Amino acid sequence: xxxxxxxxxxxxxxxxxxxxxxxxxxxxxxxxxxxxxxxxxxxxxxxxxxxxxxxxxxxxxxxxxxxxxxxxxxxxxxx
Length: 79
What we know:
Elements: H1 5-35, H2 49-78
Helix pairs in contact: 1-2
């Protein structure tokens, strides 16, 4: 029985890529959420269009992180 180093390297590469993707998506979500005001009301000032776009972008980034994590958990549990 031998070790297939190519397969181990492929798993390492995919794991590293997904990890970087999740970190970048989460960071973008935090930055967008901060730009949108972090959910805090602005003392009577209406929300601008870019605040709304930033809030939606933050939710999309966080949803992508959640979906990737849920898929990984599903692979581990049902695998």
